[in-house]
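Think of the structure tokens as a kind of shorthand, similar to the way a musician reads notation: each symbol stands for something richer, in this case the local conformation of the backbone. In the example below we present two proteins back to back. Begin with the first one, reading the sequence and then the tokens, and try to describe in your own words what changes along the chain.
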Amino acid sequence: MSQDQENFRDTIGTINEEGKRAWVFPKKPSGKFWKYRTYVSYFLLAFLISAPFLKINGNQFLMFNVLERRFNIFGFPFWPQDFHLFVISMIIGVIFVALFTVAFGRIFCGWMCPQTIFMEMVFRRIEFWIDGDRGAQIRLDRQKWDAEKIRKRVTKWIAFFIISFLIANVFLAYLIGSDRLIQYITDGPLQHISTLVSLLIFTAVFYFVFAWFREQVCIIACPYGRMQSVLLDNKSIVVAYDHKRGEGEKGRKKFRKNVNREALGHGDCIDCFQCVNVCPTGIDIRNGTQLECVNCTACIDECDTIMEKVNLPKGLIRYASEDEITKKEKFKFTPRLKGYTAVLTILTGVLVGMLFLRNDLEANILRLPGQLYEHKEGNIISNVYTYKLVNKTTKDVNDVSFKLLSHKGLVKLVRNQDFKVPAQDLAEGTLFIEINNSAIESDKEKVKIGVYSGDKLIETTRTAFLAPRSYK
């Protein structure tokens, strides 16, 4: 492209020449890909709304309780002690998205991103229903504030607020847990003022995003759009305009009946601007791959419709790589894709292995800080410890006791010898370990302790045991 043709990269589609917000009024999309996206979006909407209310083995299917550092992913609970597992899960998610970006561009944004799904399949549909299609929306925007405009605006704003409020409730269910949210609703909002304030703040944020900020989230705020410029190459399959076919030798030309475009050297693009009018981010896909493009396929459907009407082949805009358009090369599993796939496979294997090896009850026994050993009658050495048992299951662990496995000795609890660890909770306390000095070989011995539920060994842990220096 020449320098003049590259000038579009100096600005973004949502900013006009004066530097002010250029409101995007996209045409209502239709076509094959739109139908497929609708099916996918409705499925994901149902999943996003139901996920915090579904349970597997008593665990919420998805929960991200940042305040208490408790996370549930696909029914697997992750406690603060499992933070390394949660980190690996997040890394796997990032690499998975990166892999698909290298292969298929920003397909996640157009087909699976919650921002796109809610914007295009919920809020934009309501807007089309109330305000009409692109032309009607532009006329309404320019229209004076008469009774019709006030009625439509107020109706739309109320609908947007109600939906934003519902989304905020679902979002809160992900954060604090669906059981707690339902309990708060049952108790009444005045009983939980702080939660109500948080809910209204989330509602305001969602309303701002979907009613005003809109596509600018994808263009300005979301870092993924910037990341794709690093990940994409000429072999990545993206929503692309076939400039070889569309421009021809002498460029685009408006459609005229009974005109031999090929003989005149003009391409198949009839410069109808329908691909621009239908774009939800206001770009011209004919300028090439741009960070604003979310691969929503609306331009593909619109262009195919126009090509069909003028009796030209479909696919002028399609899923294709730059190499496919310029060199006619088909998609290949490149070394980059193989590398990402290998890393993804290894990390997934590591995570699965760690999940299988993880115990349902985790025990931590630590010496009480600042305390030395105590020399008791009968040549017995005693150390004092604090213990913390975390029950990661949805069932109580009853009749819990400790036994010394590595040495002959006793474990004495400060309180009752047997106790229980409540479901999805922890138990803390103090205990003493007593060992005969003759059985100790060093002044800092490693001892192994077993945690029992009744007669069943459910966990083992190790800790340090201090004793007088041995002169054996």
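Once you have a description of the first chain, move to the second and do the same.
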Amino acid sequence: MGESHGGGGGVVMVAGLFDSVVFLFSFLPIVLFLYYLMPEQLKNILLLLASLVFYAWGEPVAIFLLLGMLLFNYAWGLHLAGVLKNRRRARSGMIFCVAINLGLLSFFLYGRTVLGWLEALLPVKLPFQGFALPMGMSLCTLQMLSYIIDVYRGNVKVQKNPADLALYVLMFSKMPGGPIVRYIEMEKQLRARQISSGKVGEGAMYFIRGLSKKVLFADNIGLLYDEVMALETGQMSVLSAWLGCIAFALKIYYNLSGYTDMAIGLGKMTGFDFPENFQYPYATGSTTEFWYKWHMSLGAWFREYVYHPLGGGDTEESKQVRNILLIWLLVGLFRGPSLNYLIWGVYCGILMVAEKLFLWRALDQMPAFLGHVYSVFMVMIGWVFFFQSRPAAAFVYLGNMFGAGAVGLSDDRGMYLLVTNLALLIVMIIGLFPFVHKGYETIMDRGGKGLALINCAIYGVMFVLCMTYIVC
């Protein structure tokens, strides 16, 4: 699902910090060098300081806001732990803390929009126009809520060290785009974790693989998407419209999965194990399965803290439908203050309800290939509402995809875009399926010094190619 800051043109991708020259050749080497030299009791402090520098680099003012939120949640966690025996008081305290966190997030997500509505109604111009959503605030808020709710449930012990809680929330390795790691998954790792040469090497491979997804694939296919979106109304053929939608679908996947691979790799280099976030969603046979394997940490968060408390799948069918639609309504609202995100969320929810009620049996009986075509097709339709900031523009674009208002099935511009991007499209589409990576790993797992050297050489070439694109 990925973090979005709202705004025109659909999703605003996570900040390009991991793929900058300063990060790769200054910040990261210095942090890792000092980290491996530090005694165990100082490693968390170093990572926290590095995370504060990293965040201040991207959002120099907003760091004070997040630190204020952290202090509030730290103090409130201690308060909750002290009143847990009084369940009524603890419940009231937990609800209050959740409301404060969500209220602050809502202010930054929707404050500017609400103020704009007020200004349109009032005869005077408002001097205050609100603030933009700081980078990573959505992710940080969900992680703080994870901590508070699990303390209330008694699933984790309250964190008495404010530096460790701050590290859990602000850790630079997962700051730009996740994964969203629940506190229960990090509690033990914050106290002790193992670092080995093998784990560091595995982390380096994860990082290079993610960097390649972002730099070599997402950024390049993004150029095709930008060219299609630059076409004026009435200049788009069916071919061009589909190329734009396919380019976006590939761009958002390789971008977000690339950043999370880099985050997982950085985590392993410092001894942490973060959960996988994408599991080949475009190779699935239904939209339900697609979204289960897309940004899995965000889906797991909503299931654990929203869906299951509402009864999950253990309630009567009508309530299950209600729960699914409510979750997707919240996901749409979580994207930002734009009606297109809300429509996208409702669309996805309706599809999942339809599959649960009657489509699942039909999908289960049809050939796997047809189920896969259905899944990709329906997801692609949904992406149009995601990347078009206005619903009217989304419907016009969908019309172009199916011939309404298009200049024809194809035109010279569309054919040029297809031919010049065909090789990249083929490689990226093949990379959506698990057989590529799993086949490569199977070959490399056969062992032997020769294969290990070849593997290192391949990853070395990938890194050099990334550096060439970044520098040039």
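Compare your description with these statements about the second chain. The two ends are 31 Å apart (CA to CA).
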